[in-house]
Amino acid sequence: MFNKFLNILFPASCPLCQKPSTKHKTAPICPDCWDAVRPYSGAICKRCGAPLVSEASLTCGECLKDEPAFTYARCFGLHDGALKKAINLFKFHGIKRLSKPLSEKIFHMELPQADMVLPVPLYKKRLRERGFNQSALLGKNLAKRLEIPLNLSSLVRNRDTRPQVGLSAKERKKNIRNAFEIKEQDVIKGRRVLLIDDVFTTGATARECSKVLKKAGAQEVFVVTLSHGVLD
After folding, report:
1. pLDDT at position 8, please?
2. Most buried of 66, 78, 182, 223 (most Cβ within 10 A)?
């Protein structure tokens, strides 16, 4: 009844199939498109989680060439279809209610044991402009589900970097280099950190965050994201 009432007041059609969006929780994405979102089940790099063409390979070329500081990274699905659209609506159009159904996708993953959830931070100027940190909202839901602390203060972004979208892998790595620092080393030292973000593309951000966390004494860093993207 609540969904019907909201649909009368705020009618919406699904941006993917144009059918009516009848479920407020995932609107404007319709239930059929939302239910079609599935976890990626193909071959992956055991270190960074990047999709691989064959089960014969265990590690991708990038991880062999430049070993990341994180123990491993995992993503729920590929950055396309309804999952991509939902992340974009959540992140760039301020539809914050999508944080809960998106977080529920992460709950279906096999998550590591950790001492805290730590979202990838935004620079203070970007946070003011957007009004919220999408990774922090995901992290809040995840920490509550896992019953472990949410850490929003130890890892900070110390400068305003360019958006990673549209940059090459080399440009992404250069853009994000030395962009993070630790403010509370005693909170991080000896802890297993679950680093949460929305999208993992080249892994430049996750690698940089993990590097400073390990340098601060983190026992292990695990990276979990909603989707794995590819460069155009």
Report:
1. 44
2. 223
Q: Which two structure tokens, joined as six digits, stand for 93?
A: 């159009």
pLDDT per position as a tens digit, 19-69: 888 888 898 999 999 999 999 999 999 999 999 987 777 899 999 999 999
Burial 207-221 (b: 16+ CB within 10 A, else e): bbbbbbbbebebebb
Q: How many domains does the chain have?
A: 2
Is 82:6 a contact under the CB 8 Å cutoff?
A: no
Domain co-membership, 177 together with 217: yes
Q: State yes or no: cis peptide before 31, omega within 30 of 0.
A: no
Give the residue from 156, 157, 154, 226 showing the smallest Cα distance to 191. 154
Phi-psi region of 112 (alpha: psi -120 to 50; beta: other; left: phi over 0): beta
Query: What is the extent of the structural domain holding 15?
Result: 1-36
CATH code, 197? 3.40.50.2020
Amino acid at 194: L
Residues 109 and 3 in one domain: no
Same domain, 67 and 119: yes
Statement to judge: residues 196 and 122 lie in one domain = yes
Enter the tokens of residue 198.
């929305």
Separation of alpha carbons 200 and 138, rounded Å: 14
Burial classification of residue 120, based on how many CB atoms lie within 10 Å of its CB (0-12 exposed, 13-18 middle, 19 or more buried): buried
Structure tokens at 4: 């019907």
Query: Does one domain contain both 56 and 24?
Result: no
